[in-house]
Write a structure and sequence with these properties.
By secondary structure, the protein is mostly helical. Helix content is 79%, strand content 0%. It is built from eleven helices and no strands. Helix 6 packs parallel to helix 9. The longest helix has 28 residues. The N and C termini lie far apart (59 Å).
């Protein structure tokens, strides 16, 4: 190529980029602000499955990306908005497997000290909501692997609290966990 042609193309790029950036900023100004945690939790109570799924997926992504002060703020906001019992209810009763899975993921992450230094408060609320029944029952059902992994990970996070250890012992979780390990070992040996 000729030097003047290359220079011409190069000179045109900044003008296109500047126009593109200006267009992106204009479009961003027109976008609604992202929903707040309170708005997401309100949508979890909706009769619309689409609203519930949107809200729980956004909340799940938000919690999965939050650590330290951000995680503590998200955990506090969920607790302050009575979100723990709602998420527990969704995890147990929502007809959509995706919503149940995402609700369990949110709860599992909020019960992690790595996400929220005050996760003990979430764990206590979850126990008050009777979630031990649902979590142990999740181990009893034939679940897909992702749901089973999340249920086990959530129980692992919860078992840092003595009250949770007693609760899952009362509901027979160790027997089911042993059976899960035996099944996985047998599958691995057969492969």
């Amino acid at each position: 190529p000729r030097p003047d042609a290359t220079t011409h193309e190069h000179d045109a790029r900044p003008a296109r980029c500047t126009t593109h950036v200006a267009l992106c900023h204009a479009m961003a100004d027109e976008l609604p602000p992202p929903p707040t945690i309170s708005e997401l939790l309100a949508s979890l109570r909706s009769s619309s499955p689409d609203d519930r799924e949107f809200a729980v997926v956004v909340l799940s992504e938000l919690v999965a990306a939050a650590y330290g002060d951000d995680g503590a703020a998200v955990g506090a906001a969920v607790r302050a908005s009575a979100g723990v019992p709602v998420l527990s209810w969704l995890m147990t009763t929502d007809p959509s497997p995706e919503i149940r899975l995402q609700a369990l993921q949110v709860l599992g992450n909020l019960c992690s000290d790595a996400v929220d230094a005050r996760s003990a408060e979430t764990k206590a609320l979850l126990l008050r909501a009777g979630a031990e029944h649902a979590l142990v029952a999740a181990l009893q059902r034939d679940l897909d692997d992702e749901m089973l992994v999340l249920a086990c990970a959530t129980l692992q996070n919860l078992c840092h609290e003595p009250e949770w250890v007693r609760a899952i012992l009362r509901h027979g979780a160790p027997r089911r966990l042993e059976a899960i390990v035996e099944e996985a070992t047998a599958r691995a040996a057969a492969a």
